[in-house]
Automatic annotation (TrEMBL):
InterPro entries: CPA3_Na-H_Antiporter_D, NADH_UbQ_OxRdtase, ND/Mrp_TM. Residues 126-412 form the NADH:quinone oxidoreductase/Mrp antiporter transmembrane domain. Keywords: Cell membrane, Membrane, Transmembrane, Transmembrane helix. This is Multicomponent Na+:H+ antiporter subunit D. Its main location: membrane. It is a multi-pass membrane protein. One of its GO terms (molecular function) is NADH dehydrogenase (ubiquinone) activity. The chain crosses the membrane at residues 33-54, 66-99, 119-149, 161-180, 230-252, 264-286, 362-380, 400-420, 462-481. GO terms for biological process: ATP synthesis coupled electron transport. It comes from Modestobacter marinus. GO terms for cellular component: plasma membrane.
C-alpha cells in the first residue's frame, strides 16, 4: 500500500476548508458537496487502511523526506484505522444533520473540516509533539463552533470551554517539553517503555493528566456538561464523537506504548474510570432537558472506556474499543433526536414535551433504539460492549468494577426512561386543562407545555433520517457483532504487544 494514502485524511479536509474560505460567497450546494465529498473520501481511505492493517500489518509515512526525529511520521495500525473510519463517518453524518437543521451556512463546514483534520492527524501521528499540534488544530475551530449563533449562554459556555482547554493545552505542552527534556525525543517509538524511569514517568503523567482533562475524566470533567449543553444541535453531535474520543484514544496509545501498560498504577486508572461512570450517571438522573441528560451521560460513558484501559488486558482493551465505537454512533443518534425536537419545538425541556410518541413514530423509534443500546439491552450494540467489559472485569478479579458497571447501567436505564416517558409516552394535556398552554404560551414561557400535540409542528424527515440510520447501525452492530469484536481484539493485541507499532515508527 502506498504510504501517500496516509496523507489524504490530513491534507484533503484542510485543503477543502481553504478552498471554501477563499471562495468567499459560495453556493450552499457547493459547500455541502465539498464537505460531504471530502468526508466520504476520508471514510473510504479509512476503510482501505483498516482492511490493510487488520491482520497486523502497519503502514507508515515520513512527510517531507526529513530524517527521523525531525520528520512528521504518520502511522496506521488497526486501532487508528478503525477510529479513522468511525470519526469520518461521524463527521459525514454530522454535516448531513447540520444541513437539515440549517446550521451549515456561513463557516460551519470549513470549520468542521479543519476540526476533522486535527482529529485525523491525532489518530495517525507517531510522536507526542505532533499529537499536541493536531489536538490544537482540532480545538481552535471548536471554540468558534461552540459560540456560533451568539447568545449570553453560549458565550459563557465558550469562555468556560476556552479557559479549561487552554489550561489543559498548556499542561499538555509542558508535559511534552518535560518528556523531551529527560529523553531527548518525542517519537512514540523511541519512548516505548521509557516511563519505567521515574523522571520519564512523571513527565508522561503530566501528559496523561492533560489528556484526562480533554477526555472529561472525573474529577476533570466539569467543563463538558455546561459547554456541550449550550452548543448548537449539529455542533454538539460533531463534538460528541470527536473531541473527548481523541483524548481517550491518546490515553490508550500513550499508556500502552510509553508506560507499557504499567500495572503498578492501574488501580488509579480504575478508580478514575469507576468514579467517572458513577458521577456522570448521577448527574444525568437529576437533569431536566434532553440535551443535559445526554451530555452528563457522555461523562459516564467515558468511564466505561477508562475501565477497559485500567484492565490493560486484551479482553479489557478490546471491550473498551468496542464500547468506544458503538458509543460514538449511539450518542450521536440520541443527540440528533434531541436536536430534532429542539429545532422543531423550540425547546428540549422535559416538562414542556409530552405525547410525541404517536405523532412522531420515526423519531420515537430512533430515540428508543439508541437509548436501549446506550443502556445495554440485548441484542443491541451496547449490550455486547457491556457484556464484554463485564466479562473482562470479572476475569481480572475486579469484582467491584463489575458491580459498578451493572449498577450504572441500571441508573442509565432510569434516566433514559425519564426522558422517554416525558417526551414520548406521557399524555399531552387537553386544551384548557391543567398543564395546557395558555393562549399566549410560547417556547420561551416557563411553567407551561408548549402546545397540545395536534397543534405542534411535525419533525421534518430530514431531521430524523440521520438518527434513524445510526440507530439501525446500533442494532446491526449488536446482532452482527463478531466482525467488530474481531477488529477490536486485533487492536487490543496491538496495544498489549507494541513491538510492531514501535518497529514501524522507529524504522520509518
Amino acid at each position: 500500500m502506498s504510504p501517500a494514502l496516509l496523507v489524504v485524511p490530513v491534507a484533503a479536509p484542510l485543503a477543502a476548508a481553504g478552498v471554501l474560505v477563499l471562495a468567499g460567497r459560495r453556493s450552499p450546494v457547493l459547500v455541502r458537496v465539498v464537505g460531504w465529498g471530502v468526508s466520504a473520501l476520508v471514510l473510504a481511505v479509512g476503510a482501505v487502511l483498516l482492511a490493510a492493517t487488520v491482520e497486523g500489518q502497519l503502514t507508515t509515512a515520513r512527510l517531507g523526506g526529513w530524517p527521523p526525529g525531525i520528520a512528521i511520521v504518520l502511522v496506521a495500525d488497526v486501532l487508528s484505522a478503525l477510529l479513522l473510519v468511525v470519526t469520518s463517518a461521524l463527521v459525514l453524518v454530522s454535516l448531513v444533520f447540520a444541513a437539515a437543521t440549517g446550521e451549515d451556512d456561513g463557516s460551519f463546514v470549513p470549520l468542521a473540516l479543519v476540526l476533522s483534520t486535527g482529529v485525523y492527524g491525532a489518530l495517525l501521528t507517531g510522536d507526542l509533539f505532533n499529537l499536541f499540534v493536531f489536538v490544537e488544530v482540532m480545538l481552535v475551530p471548536s471554540y468558534v463552533l461552540l459560540v456560533a449563533g451568539g447568545g449570553a449562554r453560549r458565550l459563557a459556555a465558550g469562555r468556560r470551554y476556552l479557559a479549561v482547554n487552554l489550561l489543559a493545552s498548556t499542561l499538555f505542552l509542558a508535559g511534552v517539553g518535560l518528556v523531551y527534556g529527560v529523553t531527548g525525543t518525542v517519537a512514540l517509538g523511541e519512548l516505548a517503555g521509557a516511563a519505567a524511569a521515574p523522571e520519564v514517568g512523571i513527565a508522561g503523567a503530566v501528559v496523561l493528566v492533560a489528556l484526562a482533562v480533554k477526555a472529561a475524566v472525573v474529577p476533570l470533567h466539569s467543563w463538558l456538561p455546561g459547554s456541550y449543553a449550550a452548543a448548537g444541535p449539529a455542533v454538539v453531535v460533531l463534538f460528541s464523537g470527536l473531541l473527548t474520543k481523541v483524548g481517550v484514544y491518546a490515553l490508550y496509545r500513550i499508556w500502552s506504548v510509553v508506560f507499557d501498560g504499567d500495572r503498578r498504577w492501574l488501580w488509579l486508572l480504575m478508580a478514575a474510570g469507576v468514579a467517572t461512570m458513577v458521577i456522570g450517571v448521577l448527574g444525568a438522573v437529576g437533569e431536566r432537558t434532553m440535551r443535559s441528560v445526554l451530555t452528563f451521560h457522555m461523562v459516564s460513558q467515558i468511564g466505561y472506556m477508562v475501565v477497559g484501559l485500567a484492565l490493560s488486558t486484551v479482553a479489557g482493551l478490546a471491550a473498551g474499543i468496542f464500547f468506544l465505537v458503538q458509543y460514538v454512533l449511539v450518542k450521536a443518534a440520541l443527540l440528533m433526536c434531541a436536536g430534532a425536537v429542539e429545532v422543531t419545538h423550540g425547546t428540549d425541556e422535559l416538562a414542556r414535551l409530552r405525547g410525541l410518541g404517536r405523532r412522531e413514530p420515526a423519531l420515537a423509534v430512533a430515540f428508543g433504539l439508541s437509548a436501549l443500546a446506550l443502556v445495554g439491552v440485548p441484542p443491541l450494540s451496547g449490550f455486547v460492549a457491556k457484556l464484554a467489559l463485564l466479562d473482562a472485569t470479572l476475569d481480572a478479579g475486579q469484582h467491584v468494577a463489575a458491580g459498578v458497571v451493572v449498577v450504572v447501567s441500571l441508573l442509565t436505564l432510569t434516566s433514559m426512561l425519564k426522558v422517554w416517558n416525558a417526551v414520548f409516552t406521557e399524555a399531552a394535556p387537553e386544551p384548557g386543562g391543567p398543564g395546557a398552554a395558555g393562549p399566549d404560551a410560547g417556547p420561551g414561557q416557563p411553567g407551561v407545555v408548549v402546545a397540545p400535540p395536534a397543534t405542534r409542528p411535525r419533525v421534518r424527515p430530514a431531521l430524523v433520517a440521520p438518527a434513524l440510520l445510526l440507530a439501525i447501525l446500533a442494532v446491526g452492530l449488536g446482532i452482527w457483532a463478531e466482525p467488530l469484536l474481531a477488529v477490536a481484539d486485533a487492536a487490543a493485541r496491538g496495544l498489549v504487544d507494541t513491538t510492531a507499532y514501535v518497529t514501524a515508527v522507529t524504522s520509518s
